[in-house]
Design a protein that fits this description.
about 500 residues, alpha/beta, FAD/NAD(P)-binding domain, 4-stranded mixed sheet, 19 strands, binds flavin-adenine dinucleotide
């Protein structure tokens, strides 16, 4: 499509919308970006409180400067800076084994520092088996050897190796769940607990639904790129850097401007209408508001019936809800800025509590320490902790009460692991599904966007183009692979390349 004189309206400034707006503006299009909020960034937003830079959610970025954000930043000549750490994660597995994850699964330090833990895990597994089966000493030794090979670290490596063998495997693996795939590799509880937790960390759905191909892509790239990290200045700096480049190149950013209608005539998009009653004409409209909301705004009658029923059938991920803690001094000292507590529960049922409305005794915690990544995230000498747990998405009274109970349990678990936190809490605040929904304007507070379940990834993922001429989608609901925000930026690269 010729770009000269063509006008683009982008609806939404999430990671997808801000990326595509900056990319197209830098390539000579005339772009207006509208967002309903009076802040930019969508769910990838952060705010300042008492000198702390607080993530509105709880974010870490699996590929940092080497991933999709790095690509966008270089293409738009942005000023985004990344902070990384090695080891990047510290894991407490089943309440007793501690393990560090390094940027590379083959980092020699991983072997050395995790050797003892792996041996402990293997010993306990063998002992458990021996108890169950009453094995002879000789057989016990064999089981020990096999179990050692099946340690969490070894299983993670095996998964990463398989994922890097041949990209066409991913298409095949998109058709089966990660749970099914993993049970073909190992039946050991601890590796499965580790992967059940990590896969939900990446995609916020249980591995019994998650596409194995999608997980493998995310997982292998995280450890292949080796730059997992956070942007300097908080998660808002990602859309922030892109929007600074966008405005520098002449793009128009309008915050507090909600689109109510996408105008379609004769099968072609013509522009948008805002809540203030303003009509903005456009040759191309790119919506970052999510595929379902986009359909509503353009009117179902503008699309073929089978597209409408396909979109209505698409499912969202679960939610992440959080408690943030501003601590009056640095009281937790762990080897890595990212901390996960992986519960000692049946890995196949680790997240059943979300649907059941129950609260598990042992709950998976996703707990980055932003001030350990980026010292500027907290005032000098102080510490910021964000503790996230997985939760349901529908915003209703019952679920909001469920979220509160889950956050109570998350806090109990956190304080049982790090009791020193309790006496140093300067302030704390919770954000849950209602907060996420208030950001996006949807009735649901899903974490990612569309879920990466079997049937919704790879060739089954919604395309960024729609049946309406010149109406495009961008963000986690369209086109790309990856984890949350990075998937959204990948989608923007896809759209910009198709339009340019
Ligand atoms: C608690 C939490 C933790 C998370 N952790 C991570 C993590 O660790 N790593 C990671 O990569 N991702 C994480 N995510 C997910 C990530 O934030 C999202 O997947 C990502 O922000 C989605 O990007 P997007 O571009 O699709 O759109 P969104 O971020 O959903 O933004 C959509 C934008 O569209 C705007 N909009 C909607 N409707 C209209 C309208 N009618 N008019 C104008 N504007 C409109 C909204 O205001 C919003 O700004 C997390 C999310 C949450 C909530």
């Amino acid at each position: 499509m010729a770009r000269d004189g063509k006008k683009v309206v982008v609806i939404g400034s999430g990671p997808g919308g801000s990326s595509v707006a900056a990319l197209l503006q830098s390539r000579g299009w005339s772009v207006t970006l509208l967002d309903r909020n009076d802040f930019y960034g969508g769910k990838c937003w952060s705010f300042t409180r008492d000198g702390y830079v607080v993530d509105s959610g709880v974010h870490m970025f699996s590929m940092g400067a080497s991933g999709q954000f790095g690509d966008v930043n270089r293409m738009v000549r942005g000023d985004l800076e990344w902070m990384t750490a090695n080891p990047s994660e510290h894991l407490l597995v089943a309440g007793k084994y501690r393990l560090n994850l390094y940027q590379s699964l083959f980092d020699p330090r991983a072997v050395l520092t995790n050797l003892r833990t792996n041996a402990l895990i293997a010993r306990d597994l063998a002992a458990e088996k021996a108890k169950r089966g009453g094995l002879s000493k000789e057989l016990d030794r064999e089981v020990y050897r096999a179990a050692k090979k099946n340690s969490l670290l070894e299983t993670l490596r095996a998964v990463a190796r398989i994922a890097t063998l041949n990209p066409s495997y991913l298409a095949e693996l998109d058709e089966i769940t990660l749970q099914e795939f993993l049970h073909r590799i190992t039946d050991e509880t601890i590796p499965l607990q580790g992967l059940s937790a990590l896969s939900t960390l990446f995609t916020v759905i249980p591995y019994s639904e998650l596409s194995a191909g999608e997980f493998m892509w995310c997982f292998a790239n995280t450890f292949r790129k080796r730059t997992l990290g956070v942007p300097r200045g908080g998660s808002r700096e990602i859309p922030g850097a892109f929007l600074r480049a966008f405005q520098r190149d002449g793009g128009e950013l309008r915050l507090g401007c909600e689109v109510t209608r996408i105008v379609v005539r004769d099968g072609k998009v013509r522009g948008v209408e805002t809540t203030a009653g303003e009509e903005i004409e456009a040759d191309v409209v790119i919506s970052n508001a999510g595929i379902k909301r986009t359909l509503e705004m353009a009117g179902e009658e503008s699309f073929p019936a089978d597209y409408v029923s396909y979109v209505k059938g698409l499912k969202y991920s679960h939610a992440y809800i959080t408690t943030k803690y501003g601590l009056d001094r640095r009281v937790v000292d762990i080897p890595a800025p990212g901390f996960f507590s992986i519960p000692a529960v049946d890995p196949d049922h680790m997240f059943d509590y979300v649907e059941e409305g129950t609260v598990p005794d042992d709950i998976f915690l996703f707990t980055p320490f932003p001030s350990e990544w980026d010292p500027y995230a907290a005032p000098p000498g102080k510490q910021l902790i964000i503790c996230g747990v997985v939760a349901p998405i529908e915003v209703n009274e019952e679920n909001v009460a469920h979220c509160e109970r889950l956050l109570d349990r998350g806090e109990e678990r956190l304080l049982s692991i790090f009791p020193q936190i309790a006496d140093h809490i300067e302030w704390k605040m919770r954000t849950h599904i209602a907060h996420t929904a208030a950001i996006t304007g949807k009735p649901t507070g899903e974490c990612i966007g569309l879920s990466q379940r079997v049937g919704q990834t790879g060739v089954h993922k919604p395309r960024p183009w729609t049946p309406v001429k010149d109406l495009w989608l961008v963000g986690t609901d369209a086109g790309a692979r990856g984890i949350g925000t990075e998937q959204a930026a990948g989608s923007a690269l896809y759209v910009a390349n198709l339009l340019a």
